[in-house]
Structures are given as C-alpha cells and as structure tokens.
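User: Show me sequence and structure for the first protein, then do the same for the second.

Assistant: Starting with the first protein.
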Amino acid sequence: MTAEIQASRQDATLILTLSNPGARNALHPDMFAAAIEVLSTAERDDSIRAVVLTGADNFFCAGGNLNRLLDHRKMDALQQAEGVDLLRGWIEAIRDCPKPVIAAVEGAAAGAGFSLALACDLIVAGQTTRFAMSYVKVGLTPDGGGSWFLSQALPRQLATELMIEGKPVDASRLHALGVINRLVPDGQTLHEALTWADDLAGLSSNAMDRIKLLAREATDNSLSRHFEAERRHFIESLNHPHAEEGISAFLDKRTPDYK
C-alpha cells in the first residue's frame, strides 16, 4: 500500500494524517515532499488558521522504514544525505509555518516520528502513548532535529538518557517534564487537538505568527538581541489592523473579529 499524507479540512483547521498501512505509518520520502507542498499552500491560505498533524489507525508514526535504510547503505554518501535533507525540509516547513501546528499523538512516536512530533508547536498525547528516540537501538543517531529539540526541552542529562538508551518513555513522564502540553484519554487526541485549533482560530493570526518566531529565536538570541526582536515585533503588531481590533474589542467588552 502507498505511504502518503492525507489532507483534509475541518472548519479553519487543516488536518494532515500520516498514512502508511501495515507499516505503522513509517515515513517515506514521498510523504516529505507532499507535506512540504501542502504546508506551503496552507501558509498562503488565510482561511486556514491552524494545522493538526496526526497518524492513521490510532498510531502516530514508527519512524523510518528500516528496509529502505538498509537499501540506502548501497548508495553513495551524497544520495544518503539527500534522504536526510528531505526530512529536514519537512521539519523546517513545520517550524516556518506561520500557523500553529499541533501534533495529535496516539499509540507511539518512535525515531523520526518522535522528531516530527517535537517539531510541532504543541503536542497532545493519549495517556498510554509512548515516545522513543530509538535510533541507538539499530546503531543510528537522531535526525529530523530530534537531538536539538530534546536538548532544548530537557536538561542535558535527561535528553542524553532518552537518546543514549533509546528506551520508550511514557507520555505521562513527558507531560510532567513539560514536553507534552496536554494528556488526554486514548482515542481523544485528535478531538482535543481540533478543539484547541478551533480556539486558536479566534485569535490574531498576525500575533501568533510573531510569537512563533520569538519563541524560535529565543533559543539562539542573547537577551539584548531578543529585546530588539521583541521591540520590532511589538511595534509592527501595534500598527497591524489586528491590534486595533483586539484593543477596541477589549475596551468595548466584545469578542474580537480578526479577519
């Protein structure tokens, strides 16, 4: 069966579903290119206010296809690097998307599947969901930014533990550590993510885009440089129509209408 990204809409939310039947939604290069294209389209579509990434059949993603990786050993280093860079392109498309991207994770997220979830702005997970940075189990090292995301989210010792052992970790532990935003009953992650996305759709898209940028830049900026970035975004936001509507609505005690 075909590995693909299935795109659908619910109101103002774009739903991207990882689908690779019989392979626990293992990733494939065709999925990378399709996801990048649909995210690029969503970026230009003002009617889309949020994106939800989920997996088919109550399972998020098992990571890379190991049989395909064995075949890659027969390729030269340049061809091998092209495969890694395709995943990087997808991760960067998620990070660069001006709309909030929410991962709805059921079952498990392993290897690059874990990296993919970590790339999203927000994560909703089922109570029995398990996450594993499992590369070391097959003699590999993380890709898709997984080592960077974990090292940003956790103390060095904890991030190292998850990567150097490669053992599955329960969603409840990651929730307690602040890596997962919301922990919900199994089978309810997509509903919760869509409800959250619907709530976000009522907020200023201009402000959310800039907040995503500030959060991303904060990891590399000194405080002095970050003050300058905050000043720039604040002034540009103040002069955006959304600020006029938001402030006026607050003073008028009504719900703002961010068009």
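Switching to the second protein now.
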Amino acid sequence: MFTIKSALEWATSYLGKRKIDSPRLTAELLLIYVLGKSRLDLYLEFDRPVDADVFALFKKLILSRSSGVPLSYLTGEQEFMGLKFKVTSDVYIPRPETEILVEETLKEIQCLKLTSSSPFVILDLGTGCGNIAISLVKKIENSKAYATDVSRKALKVAMENAHVHSVENKVTFLEGDLFSPLNGLNLEGRVDLIISNPPYVAASDMDKLPAEVKNEPRIALEGGEDGLSFYRRIIYKAPKFLRKGGILSMEIGYNQAEAVKEIIINEGELEIPRIIKDYAGKQRVILTKRSNRSEV
C-alpha cells in the first residue's frame, strides 16, 4: 500500500532515472491530477494511503510521461496568460514564449490609443487550442477575433476553450488554411491585427526534435523546407487584409529573425519590423505594421 509520500518518492525516482525534466514537480502534478487535490493537500496528507485504483492510474500516467508523452496531454490542460486551456493531442501545447508574443502585441495596441467605436478586428492564423485569440479578446475591450486552422479537431478544442472563458460570441473559428476561410467575409483592408505563431521548424530538422515534441501534431510544427514557408505566405497576404497602420505580429524560431525581416522589407507595403527577444535572450517575436503612406 502506497502513501502519498511513498507514491511521490517512487514516481520521482522512476522519472529521474529516465531523464525526465523536473521529476519531482511532474510527479506532484500528476498525483494532484488523479487525486483532485491541491499541492498543499499533498504535503498536509503525506501519510494518507493511496487507493489501489488511484495508484494504478497514477502509475499509468507516470509510465506515459516517461515514454515522452507531454505532461499537458496527460492532464488535459495548459496555463497561458493566467488562463487554463484544454489541450489534447490534436493541438500544439501553448508555450510560455508565446506569452511574449501576446504581451508585446498588447503593448503595441496600447500605443495606438484606440478611439473608434468599431470593434478591434483580430485575425489569429493557425489558432490551435485558441489560446492567442481568446487571451486577446479577453484583454481588448470591444474586440472581435477570427481564428483559422486547418485542423477540425483543433478547432473543436478551441471552441470549447472559448466557451469556458465566456468569449464564444467574440471569436469566430473558421476551418481552412491561413487566410482562405476568410473569403466572402469582407475583411479586406479592415483588420487591425494579424497575429500568428506559425509552424517554423525546417523539414530537415523535424527528426532532431526532442521525443516529447514529436508527440505534438507535425502539422503544427513543420514550416517547409527552410522553416519559412508560412512566413512568406502570411507576409504576402497580410497587406490585403490589414488597414493602414494595422499590426502584423508573429512568433519566430531560433535564428530566423533576419530572414523573416528581409521577407517583410521586400514585401513593400509593410514597415521595417521590430524584433523582440524572449527571457532567454533569443529573438522570439517580429512585429510590423502596414504602411500609412498612400504610395509605397
């Protein structure tokens, strides 16, 4: 018979031997999940026996985690911008680095000093579980988002998240590739913000990804032969949809900043972009606007 303490000790040792990051924290989070308790409860009830069926489920989750299944897929949720989002194996797991994309975009929006009574219109391309669009419409008063994704299963998860966060009337989810589902919506030249965390791993690098990341949808990771195909397509079409002065904000991969910057400059209708680093000092976000000039 395992107690909470001995179950944690076993799981921590098991995960540690298999080189899983943060084995103690992982063990605690999975035991919290199966017991339905808080972290404080674990420490206050160290000597409490764990029922055999509960331990069996806990052990199954520990074995799955040790084989590389991401923690968020096991618990079914991931926190982002202070909100909890449902995640499944059909969606890319939101990363803390993407919070920088949202935070820096919000700062840029604040600089616009919005006064229009019309809704602030957002396009979220490749929405996944909907974390970016939902976080933005909760932060931006009088906003409306259109969120696209090629995966019907991902959109189902995103719609559930919108319902949980009570923004289902502020986000329209559309199935299709990037801008293609927007045909007929009369959004050309009316969008205030286009935002995306597109697939940006080069095809040749996919096999080099950590085993854990390989468990996530390939379609959410691979960005073509050089990892830049989605940037080219987004940047080419963005001016058609952005109003003058409208923002284009994208997450970028390691060592991609200069290449994406060049694509933006060569496009001709976008301003010279600003590049923002993440907390590790890596270039993580690229942000530009559609030019206000009548001729470019």
